[in-house]
Amino acid sequence: MILSSRSKGLLLVIIGATCWGIGGTVAKKLFEQFAVDVNWLVSTRLLAAGILLLTLQAILGGRSAVTSVWQQKSTAGRLILFGLAGMLAVQYTYMASIQHGNAAVATLLQYLSPVMIIMYLLLRRQMVLSSRDLMMVTLALLGCFLLLTNGSLAGLTVPIPAIIWGVLSGAAAAFYTLYAAALVREHDSLTIVGWAMIIGGCGLSILHPPWRADFAYMAPTIWLYMAFIIIFGTMIAFWFYVKSLQYLSAREVSLLGSLEPLAAVITTVFWLHTPFGWFQWLGTACIIGLILLLTLNRQST
């Protein structure tokens, strides 16, 4: 059976977004069951996925597609900043939030980044606040309140460090999105992201060399989970998401991208058996609703 172009696009983005969300839950499993160090996981993940992405780009576009980004000093400098303050910051804060809390909360807090982008653009006077913007901010704040408190002020249901790292992850993702725009317009996105992953991985390796881990005590299951995170949760997730843009509009792809937090929530609850209250489910719905409103708003403007 030959799939139509639209069917290919739908399949690619659904698999990509789902793999990214599940990858966070698998990381939480490594933290809980095997006490894997977050620094080792992030550096190893970035380096391995970056090498795989650039290898793929070299196969598809040739060596020049991989090396051309370093020919101009200004572009090289921006790429290094993007790799450290963008890619590494996003990956590390996200994984740290998972380690202290769970993948569902970390993923949903990271999706506060669109609200942070709106606030940044307002401060820069690059946009005017509309009623739709107010609705989205309200959804974000209400969603976070319900997610973190389960509807009660008696006590937070998520550890404070997980909240802090999650909010920082949202801020890092906002910077990542805003700063990457110009780089992606000038060079292929696979090249930019591949190099950014390697730069970020090398930056963290200076402080926490991944090769110093005690590999003799690592169970085969750890390597199995790591392989999933690197190949499916990072490389395939990003590649399929970008590839789907060849078949679908940006609006459709971004809408289906909301499957990422949904996949993280479902796998966290049903695989890791993390308790999730009814008000937290309502908070989840609010933040996913925020994502849908943002993508619709972006398409109409």
Report on the structure:
Helix content is 79%, strand content 0%. The chain is built from 13 helices and no strands. It has 301 residues and is mostly helical. It starts with a helix and ends with a helix.
Topology:
Blueprint: H1 5-34, H2 38-61, H3 63-67, H4 73-100, H5 103-110, H6 113-123, H7 131-149, H8 160-186, H9 189-207, H10 220-243, H11 250-256, H12 259-270, H13 278-300
Task: Offer a few descriptive terms.
301 residues; globular
Please write the string of helix (H) and strand (E) elements: HHHHHHHHHHHHH
Main sheet specs: none
Low-pLDDT regions? none
Distance, first to last CA: 38 Å
How does the overall form come out from the CA principal axes? globular
How many DSSP-defined strands?
0
Percent of residues in beta strands: under 5%
Radius of gyration: 19 Å
Summed up, the helix count is 13
Helix content: over 70%
Q: Which class best fits the helix and strand makeup?
A: mainly alpha
Quaternary organization? single chain
Mean pLDDT: 84
